[in-house]
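Collaboration report, partner site 2.

Our partner group contributed sequences for two proteins of shared interest, and the home lab folded both. The records are reproduced in the order in which they were received, starting with the first partner submission.
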Amino acid sequence: MTDQGNSVRVTRLAKKREAEAMVKHLQQPNKKRVVLGEIQDLSHAGSNQIKPKTKQITTKRKVKRSVTEKDKEFDDPQMCSAYVSDIYDYLHQMEIEKKRRPLSDYLEKVQKDVTANMRGVLVDWLVEVAEEYKLLVDTFYLAVSYIDRFLSVNVIPRQRLQLLGVASMLIAAKYEEIKPPHAKDFSYITANTFTKKDVVKMEASVLQSLKFEMGNPTAKTFLRRFTRVAQEDHKNPDLQLEFLGCYLAELSLLDYNCVKFLPSLVAAAVIFLSRFTLLPKSHPWSLALQSCSGYRAADLKECVLIIHDLQLSRRGSTLAAMRDKYKLHKFKCVSTLSSPSEIPDSFFEDTR
């Protein structure tokens, strides 16, 4: 038993010494790490000199410089510059899918008791709801999209229009928000006109009607990209342009006449009008914006004029929630900016 115990202790001691030797070897201060690309070169050199390192760095710099010239946002992983074109091609294909589009004339063909003015009042009220619960603007866009799509296939009385609005906002919040409000919160916001049970039942109706197709691009989706392109000559972000674009895009949601336009076209029209508002004597469209959006200035004319009328309160003048929201200093008071009453026809001619 004693000999066996001694043998075990000797074996353990030997293993311990072997491990200590290995650690000591790995921790040698003069040991130089070699990257995989350098190992191949060492097989031919037969020495510890790492000559290809300088050449390798030069190659990397050349690659990075060429990509940077192609896309200034290469270093920003959030912009997905390597495949951003593919992403937006996919979004353009998605936005034209019939299942994701409302009818352009659903108030005339489907609804019997709901008018364009009622829809505008509902959307304007939802601005206040989103502010009350501090919801993302993407949630607001989706909610309006769900409302229009639902009304394209379902007839409802005007008394239930507000219920449709809060149910759509609840669904959009569940889709976009980390911590969405509860059904009871949306019941409360209607001054308890509708119960929690009413909200949940309408939520189910909307989901079934839209066949659970909840994700779709909105004007905000495209506005992010177009705004960056519009600032290609700016060294620093133009916050006034960005906030003005957000304001005009949200303002377009108030008007039933904008339902017929694709989200990407609305976003392009918003950039056109934002640039015109800030620099009324300069042509608001560019070849870069035309290439990025896929729209010529002439394609935007009808949509631009409608949003321009909204901006000047020639349309929807009684709908104040959106305008009040963007009067705040945190949005640089963009809703108070003045714009020329007329847009020159020459601005809608092709950019050269």
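Second partner submission, folded after the first:
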Amino acid sequence: MLLARLRPGHLLRAALLRLPLPRGVGGGGEPARTPGTARAEQAHKVVASYKPSQFDKKILVWTGRFKTEEEIPPRIPPEMLDRARNKARVKACYIMIGLSIVACFAVIASAKKAAARHESLTSWNLAKKAKWRKEAALAAESKTK
């Protein structure tokens, strides 16, 4: 194999020519690891690095992650809080959807009652404008006197 075979998704390899591989890629297509890499990754990975606020504690309890606020440790992983916030966001959305549906039915019931009393926005608007005309006429008469 003098030059490499070109296939999609494979690195260009040359048996006779030692071409430099892209940075961070070992011979098998995986990132190259040095002996100290594992220790360096562990040093940067902190398990519990976030101190939750009172609001965060309420979210953790409301989403069911902990039963009481006293059970929450002083430091928690940020991923735990992210999951709890997402769950709380979904719960809040479901509550708002339910309230919107209830409000729609309340408006429908109110509109049906108003229609039974022969009330409409048009009649209210006409009555309001007639009242304004009377007030304007009275104000004009009082100015002329």
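Feedback sent to the partner group on the second submission included the following. Confidence is low (pLDDT under 50) at residues 11-16. The chain has four helices and no strands.
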